[in-house]
Amino acid sequence: MSSVPLSAMAAEIRETPEAVARFLDREEGALRRLGTRLRALAPAFVASCARGSSDNAAAYFKYGLEILAGLPVASIGPSVASIYHAPLRLEGALLISVSQSGRSPDIVALQAAARQAGACAVAVVNDASSPLALGADAVLPLHAGVERSVAATKTCLVSAAVLAGLIAELGDDEGLRAGLRGLPGALARALLADWSAPLPVLAQAPSAYVIGRGPAFPIAMEAALKLKEAAMLHAEAFSGAEVMHGPLQLLQEGFPVLAFRQHDAAYAAMGETIARLAGAGGRVFSCEEGAPEASRLPFVPTGHTLLDPLAMLLSFYRLAEQVAHARGHDPDRPSLLRKVTETV
What we know:
By secondary structure, this protein is of the alpha/beta class.
């Protein structure tokens, strides 16, 4: 990729492997103890509460927990509590709230309402002294360090890694625990992956699609969000199934598509989708295993298929920062956004 001034976004992307390692070093024991406590609780279902990039991490958690542990996860809109003041029926449930700042009033209000309704509340936050952390039954601090760029990168990925750890504990999954221990090294390798092939296309594109299936779908959602907020590129995320319905009609010759294709049960179906999109004229760049070629973005395996999309996302973040510069934007200073968005 071309040489550009180092932005805060770029610096924080580079810090991600170390940040994940720091969480594991400081909180692995606490995570194991929390897992023992939650398995004893044996919740019938789990609810999540988050916004923005944190909500994409929560959606990744949803797919992972439902696939590996068979435990259903529902996302509750914060306004259900903060604006509508609706009574919740959450006796014996587990609520996972995810927030970088832990200060958004609506998320704090939803957590308080859930606890009052009988849920056990776990807060995943970067600020362990925040109102969300102080109001929870248990806290998993990210230890990600200060994040100055408006576009959250390392806090989103560390949140997803923390939530993957929670999946491992809720499911008592030793294979996933082992994968997590090797994740910082895989992320360090993902930083070296050359994703420059789509850069010229995305630099000039008016719109793009980002697709994924299963736990890679929320990663696609996060990628589309970053293209919007950092690069001012209109990008929409779809599952590899849903894109074949209405969204397919918008495809024109050369329309850019980024695909996240991890080698799990959805691999074959995603391959069919990619072939169909390319056949319809899409300029498809797919992150997947295999020999390098013009349309294949480098894939860095993590040792566990649930974690593979996280390495893909870190490689993508580097691309998104470069796309922002190529389109003439400062990724650290989007004109209409702030670092902490406090909604009610």
